[in-house]
Design a protein that fits this description.
Elements lengths: L3 H8 L3 H8 L7 H14 L17 E6 L6 H15 L3 E6 L4 H13 L4 E4 L8 H9 L4 E2 L2 E2 L2 E5 L8 E5 L1 H14 L6 E5 L5 H16 L9 E3 L4 H13 L6 E4 L2 H13 L9 E6 L3 H4 L5 E4 L2 H18 L8 E4 L2 E3 L18
Parallel strand pairs: 1-2, 1-3, 3-6, 6-7, 7-13, 8-9, 8-10, 10-11, 11-12
Antiparallel strand pairs: 4-5, 12-14
InterPro entries: HTH_LacI, LacI/GalR-like_sensor, Lambda_DNA-bd_dom_sf, Peripla_BP_I
Pfam families: LacI (PF00356), Peripla_BP_3 (PF13377)
Organism: Diplocloster modestus
């Protein structure tokens, strides 16, 4: 593994200059900073600033890096992680990337340097550029004082076959949702508000949506797939725009519940009856699904179990102390939770209300 001398040699600067860049000193010129940061990236260098000189590499600290703590989805995930961590006397440190791959790369590098035993990661690394590919490749090679730092990803497996993951089958879940809207609710013109198109989870859910349409003899058209951004406001504005344009639809399947809540608000303001005129279905089954009016039918994702499974597996990897021979992907089951947004008069399910 590269050390600070290698970085200095690669960048053509002194070791002290590299150190100042790592510590974000203002005394380094922009041009030198660029040279050093490029060398760090090229060499996949990870500093070891806190534990330098310590005899043991065990810290009982786990880094948890999420896309955004404002995503309600992650509250249950964190609860599961915390429960398992507390039982084993581990501490967790939470950071968020705001879906920025640049920030994610810096956070992973920083966490590895700040002496953690492992990293649980909800990654935004779905690009195919050289820098992203090199970063993904590096995730299975993180080290501290010669000891391997395991990484476990959440929600979907990254493209590095050396990184384990705890996931759900996004394609299968989307297929189940759309098939339900067609067979059980009798809808034919179903709009899908997706996650960002470039995201693996977004692509998988679109694939499931399309497969369900085609298996039921319905035509897939790109006009019925709208790119969302996770937020309720996005669901709200996209729905109002659909109605304004006169686009025909009798159901909306949203890739998360937050966007579905926005859809319900827009339909209410436009005096469109749910579910008689338009049925609405979400994904994740966050607590809001049980309390909005009408209550929201959703695909339940076991968030607590995802967090707990990720932490349990992380502890197993730490105890083993070396990369496993074969990658492990833990896939959790999902299920449909029916509520009033798809069937009038159905009893509101509080089965998974977790607050």
């Amino acid at each position: 593994m590269a050390n600070i001398k290698d970085v200095a040699r690669q960048a053509g600067v002194s070791i002290s200059t590299v150190s100042r860049v790592i510590n974000d000193s203002k005394s380094v010129s922009p041009s030198l900073r660029v040279m050093v940061e490029k060398a760090i990236d090229d060499l996949n260098y990870s500093t070891n600033s806190i534990a330098r000189g310590l005899k043991s590499s065990q810290t009982n600290n786990i880094a948890v890096i999420l896309t955004s703590v404002s995503r309600t989805f992650f509250s249950g995930v964190l609860e599961g992680i915390n429960k398992e961590a507390d039982q084993e006397k581990y501490s967790i440190f939470i950071s968020e990337t705001h879906d920025s791959i640049e920030r994610e790369i810096k956070l992973v590098r920083s966490c590895a340097s700040q002496w953690v035993d492992g990293i649980i990661l909800a990654s935004s690394a779905y690009g195919n550029d050289m820098k992203t590919r090199k970063y993904i490749e590096s995730l299975s090679k993180l080290e501290k004082k010669g000891s391997w730092i395991p990484v476990v990803t959440l929600e979907y497996p990254c493209s590095n076959p050396g990184v384990d993951a705890v996931v759900v089958d996004h394609k299968k879940s989307a297929f189940r949702a759309v098939d339900y809207l067609i067979r059980e609710v009798g809808k034919k013109s179903i709009v899908h508000i997706s996650l960002p198109f470039e995201h693996y989870m977004g692509q998988q859910r679109i694939a499931g949506y399309r497969e369900a349409l085609e298996q039921n003899g319905l035509l897939f058209t790109e006009d019925n797939v709208l790119e969302g951004d996770y937020t309720s406001y996005c669901g709200y504005t996209l729905t109002r725009d659909l109605v304004r344009r006169g686009h025909p639809f009798d159901a909306v399947f949203c890739a998360n519940d937050q966007m579905a809540v926005g859809v319900l608000q827009a339909l209410s303001e436009l005096e469109i009856q749910v579910p008689e005129q338009v049925a609405v279905m979400g994904n994740d089954d966050i607590f809001a699904a049980s309390i909005v009016k009408p209550s929201l039918t959703s695909i339940h994702v076991p968030r607590f179990e995802m967090g707990a499974a990720a932490m349990k597996h992380m502890l197993e990897l730490i105890r083993e102390g070396e990369p496993p021979v074969k990658r492990k992907i833990i896939t959790l089951d999902t299920e449909i939770v029916e509520r009033e947004s798809t069937k009038r008069g159905i009893k509101n399910s509080l089965k998974y209300l977790d607050w």
